[in-house]
Amino acid sequence: MMSGQYRLCGLLTVIYLAGCAGEDTQSAIKDSAGDTLLAAPTFVDVPGTQTQQAYVRFGFSSIHTNQFECQLDDESPYLCNSPELIYPLEKGPHSFTVRAVDDNGVAGQGQEYQWSVDDVFVGQVPEDVIVTGIHPEPADPLSWRGIFRINCDFSHGAYNDPIVFPNQSNAAHLHHFYGNTLTDENSTTETLFTLGESSCQGNFLNRSAYWVPALLAPDYDPISGDRVIDSQGEPAWKAVPAVVGNDEEAHEIFYYSAGVSDLSSIQPIPVGLKMIAGDHMGKPGNEQDTAIVRWHCQSWESNDATNPRWSSSIPECVAPDRVRMDVFFPSCWNGADLDSADHKSHMAYPVSEGGDRTLTCPSSHPIPLVRVSFHYAFGVKPDVYEPVTQSSKGWRFASDSYQVDELNPGGMSLHGDWFNAWHPQIMQQILEGCIRQGLDCHDGNLANGFRLSGTRPGIQTEPLIINEGRGH
């Protein structure tokens, strides 16, 4: 048996055995009154004494009970079960103590394990960060205040939504998923943060999930130019692929930026935060605010500073143009909830104050977080364009609940979902290195001599398009 640390806890001397996985330490002990207490549980699974992961799992058992009390560092003890997953963890030393609990709720002898979460940028850095000699330039003062950009490959399509329809298979309209390749209707903070790989830059360091409704184009026969009819006797549709996954030609589609004017006030996004931007019920007569969600042709050269030419619906862009799509998420948090019943109320958009248009968070949601936004490009190409006009005419979103026609173009239901599972150290570096410094960090450049690794192909599955993408 290894020598242990001794701590005096009231009138009871407790032996803490650091790193004794598998040893028999379950002989009974007595307190100062002579009453028998449960012996310390035995660790059956422990992490390494050093790790760069921001989570750990402990397995433990007792021959006397299946009730346990756990404690991380100096925090309050809590009831727990084996295996116990702990996340997210800050870098530095940590300790975990587990005690068996009897039928009267009395905790017995404690078993402790100590380990350290290392800095991912010191020593043996993970494969998901790469050394770079490129330092980002300052952000355009007429555009972004500070920004970090990454690219992702398409992961998979599915009629699922783990935020709106958790644990319900095929309950949603058709979505295109990016990021964590295991994202499905059963995804939780725990599964995203600890399991799967990512189709985004950074791989294991960026297990966040990103998804939007599928963009659909009418399916035309390439010879006759007539609409194809599907097996149900209805006009057929095909998915329009976004221009993603090419590291040689930058098409960064996910941005992390400053939503408020005071860059020093911005905080990192907490692990497990869920949110939705945009309204799936957008339709003619109920058009959405183009400051939140918008479409435009790339040839329009739209920008917020000098050419705010945006559309609330999909414009008819002519080949070889691209249809662009922007979704801006709220960045002001209430400081308490990682989600809400409508998946929006725990968040709010910044408000403009004063003649200088200073952006701040409202008092109801006082904590400014890193702002998330999606920016997609869709090529107007022969396999998806309308044959006569060679344009994006007739394109629709899978979430469009109205009749799309010449008078009512598609895309008015534009919205996006986001579920945070970034490694906390990387999110902190994005904030401190890029956003607070007012830099324009392209290609996953972290502004500290490292950048995130490149994209990876996702699962690439594309389900059949049912009922114009709305599913069963």
Radius of gyration: 26 Å
Q: For the record, give the distance between the C-alpha atoms at the N and C termini, rounded to a whole number.
A: 61 Å
Principal-axis shape equals: globular
The main sheet orders its strands as: 14-33-15-21-30-24-23
Q: With helices defined by DSSP (H or I, 4 residues minimum), what is the helix count?
A: 2
| Percent helix | under 10%
Number of domains: 2
Helix-strand category: mainly beta
Taking all residues together, what is the mean pLDDT? 91
Instruction: Please report which band the strand proportion falls in: under 5%, 5-15%, 15-25%, 25-35%, 35-45% or over 45%.
Output: 25-35%
Uncertain regions: pLDDT < 50 for 5+ in a row?
A: 1-27
Oligomer: single chain
Give a structural overview.
It comes from Pseudobowmanella zhangzhouensis. Residues 161-422 form the DUF1996 domain. It is a single chain. The protein is mainly beta and 472 residues long. It has 2 domains: 5-117, Immunoglobulins (Immunoglobulin-like), CATH 2.60.40; 119-472, no CATH class. Helices cover 4% and strands 31% of the residues. The protein has 2 helices and 34 strands. It has helices at residues 189-194, 424-435, and strands at 5-9, 12-16, 29-30, 36-37, 42-45, 50-51, 56-61, 68-72, 78-80, 84-86, 92-101, 107-117, 129-131, 137-138, 147-150, 154-158, 175-179, 209-213, 215-218, 237-239, 254-257, 274-278, 293-297, 322-328, 332-333, 347-348, 351-353, 358-360, 367-368, 371-379, 396-397, 415-419, 439-441, 450-452. The strands form 10 sheets. A 7-stranded mixed β-sheet has the order 14-33-15-21-30-24-23, covered by helices on one side. A 5-stranded mixed β-sheet has the order 6-12-11-8-9, with no helix packed on it. A hairpin with a 4-residue loop joins strand 27 (351-353) and strand 28 (358-360).
